[in-house]
Structures are given as C-alpha cells and as structure tokens.
Amino acid sequence: MSRFDLSREELAAILAGEPAYRVDQVWDGLYRLHADPSELTSLPRMLRDLLAHDPRLAPAWVLVAETTSDRDTTWKWLLEAPDGARVETVVMGYRTRTTACVSSQAGCAMGCSFCATGQLGFGRHLTSGEIVEQVVLAARHTEQAGRGRLGNVVLMGMGEPLANYRNVLAALRRCNEELGIGARSMTVSTVGIVPGILRLAAEPLQVNLAVSLHAANDALRDELVPVNRRYDLDALMGACRRYVDATHRRISFEWACIAGVNDSPRDARELAGLARPLGAHVNLIPLNPTPGYAVAGSTASAVARFRDELSDHGVNVTVRNTRGRDVEAACGQLAAGVAVGGLRRVAVGARLA
After folding, report:
1. 175 is an active site residue
2. Of 88, 130, 133, 309, which one is the catalytic site residue?
3. What is the reported pTM?
C-alpha cells in the first residue's frame, strides 16, 4: 500500500480533530508540491511529527539502487516495497520534456522470451497508489533537477498494465486529476490483452495506446508473444479497430527488431498490412540484450532498411532512440535487480521522499 492509495475521505479520517483545511494542505502537499508531510512547513511541527510516524502516510518504496546514463539524463531506480516486491522506474530527460516510464506489476506473467521482465515471471500487481507514487517521485526528481514539470508518463516498465486494469486506470485518473498530467501525455502499453483494450476504448479518459506487436503473423507471434495463442492477431486487430473508432486516437505498434527473426522485407510487408488500415504509427526498437535471450538485435542498417520498406508501403514509422541500454534501463531490460545467477546489485536502502 501507498499513501497515494488514500482517498480524501480517508485522509480526513487520519486528520480527525484538525481544522478541515488541514486536509487540503496535506493533499496539496502530496500531489502539487510532491512533498512528504514532514516537509510541509504550513503545518504545525507537532502535526508534522505525528504524520511522519503514521504508517498510513509512509512512502511505499525504499530506494535500493540508482543508476544513471546518457550523461545524467536517464535515471533508473530499483525500488522495494515492505513485502519485498521490487520494481524499476526509469526517468528520461529530453531537450523539451521529461518522461517517466513506470511499472504496473512486480514481474510479468506474459512470458515474452526476449524481455527480461518476462523472464522473471509474475510477482504481484501494484496498487494504484504504488503506481502513482512512482510518478510523484519522477515529478519531484524532475523539478529538483531543474527540468521543470514532468511531461509524459508511459506504462512501459515492468508488468502488463491491462492485466492490472482496475489499479492502472485508478492511477491514471489520479495522475490526471490530481497531478495535472493530461490524458494525451499518458500512454498504456500492452502485449495485446484484448478485453483490456476494449474496456480502455470505452473509458472517458482517452489515454494513448501502444501495442507491443513484434510479429505480424500468428505463427511467429505465438513464439515471441505467448499471449497471442489466446488473443490472436485477428482478435487483436479487431480490438484495435474498436479502439480507434471509439476514441479517434492513433495507435502505436511497438516492434523490437530481432536479427533474422522479424526484420525481413516480408515481415515489413506483413506489418504494413496491419498498420496501414488502422493508420497506426510504428515504433522500431532495435532489440536490447537480455541475459535469457541469445538472439541479437537487428543492425542499424537492417533497421534502416526495415524502416524504409515500411515507409514505402505508406506506414508512418519512427526508429526509437534507445536510452539507458548501458545500465539495463532500456525497453525490455527491466528486471528489478535480478539477473542469471542472482541479484545484480545491492545498495543501502534509503527512503524516497
């Protein structure tokens, strides 16, 4: 649990006996100032001390390790909950914006062989507050680094967001309503949970949808993305069509380019056949190395050829700039500090405010 799981009414119960405006002061401190209650100088010192020792207002995450990359513009945090669940959160600073890549589960049950999180297996769902707290930490870090406000939130960290639908949607609403992050600045990534896509299409909060496709025929996708055996490409494309028709938003297809596996002209033609009718944008991501998957990512020249082939078939396509690969913070590399042979790193725990 996290203090960001609390409703206003639950916070008011904690502050029973205090003036009613104290609820607004603490609520605004958490969401607008991104501050720990003990830091709120608008509160009397005695009340700050009481709140600092109230377990209901304690942070959910302890910092186990922090690594940086890309000349200190990419940060990765290994976070641990009191029950031992671990996740990783990545913050990426760009020239005009900062993006937080947050986790929705500890581990993942989807079993995609080329993904480090999938190789871990499933731990547990995160609560909505545990998801929101990652965003708040990223927002606080962004401000303290002098980069202004956090611009974007992507649920592309550990876990399958649509397998934790209720908590993910509650977190997105809280980020939108209380943190002021626009729906169009938040993206949910899925490997293709069809019922979740259909539910998302009916939501009034129209966030962006990214589908981790990686293969455009069922035989290959069954191998790379095992959930395809349950929700095949016909079902997935039908759900994507429903999403586009209901929201009038453009879908993104994520494609990890794997050498000799899914980077041929035929693969490009098959992908174009799925993307073009939907008006989908394709993000090409050279596969990042993980300990449990021996096949290499496509070369830069192979990715360029694949991009050009898609473009020739009328598909809007981008080659994503890989961030944090050297500290295992890039797409598909998050593994909560675990590697073949055990823990990758251990550092002295420190509470994140």
Report:
1. no
2. 88
3. 0.90
